[in-house]
Write a structure and sequence with these properties.
Mean pLDDT: 95
Strand content: over 45%
Distance between the termini: 40 Å
Low-confidence stretches: none
Radius of gyration: 13 Å
Shape: globular
Helix content: under 10%
């Protein structure tokens, strides 16, 4: 059973930066899709960034391209999301997710495992 635990959320002013971490355990396969999703109040969950651990390809939503960077430390089994130039519209609960199917486009149903989430709040 894959377990995902996020950390690193918090409150920041617009233009600031945060780095989210997702500690993963319980892997049994060689390849996983890992991704960050977010959900703001009253809005649907949306994929933000993803990585194919097999080939290393990364994927980003248009809204975060150039500002967010997804990376993974395989030795630590940890996924990261570096978020720069944050905007108030980035405010949401951020979730780490893992799956074995298609990494992109970001479809929640393709991700079998989810963390509890970490809150990111960006003030103007």
């Amino acid at each position: 059973q894959v377990q995902l635990v996020e950390s690193g959320g918090g409150s920041v002013q617009a233009g600031g930066s945060l780095r989210l971490s997702c500690a993963a355990s319980g892997y049994t396969g060689r390849r996983y899709c890992m991704a960050w999703f977010r959900q703001a109040p009253g809005k649907e969950r949306e994929g933000v960034a993803g990585i194919d651990t097999g080939v290393g390809n990364t994927y980003y939503a248009d809204s975060v391209k150039g500002r967010f960077t997804i990376s993974r430390d395989s030795a630590k089994n940890t996924l990261y999301l570096q978020m720069n130039s944050l905007k108030p519209e980035d405010t949401a609960m951020y979730y780490c997710a893992a799956g074995t199917r298609y990494c992109y486009p970001f479809v929640s149903a393709n991700y079998n495992y989810w963390g509890q989430g970490t809150q990111v709040t960006v003030s103007s």
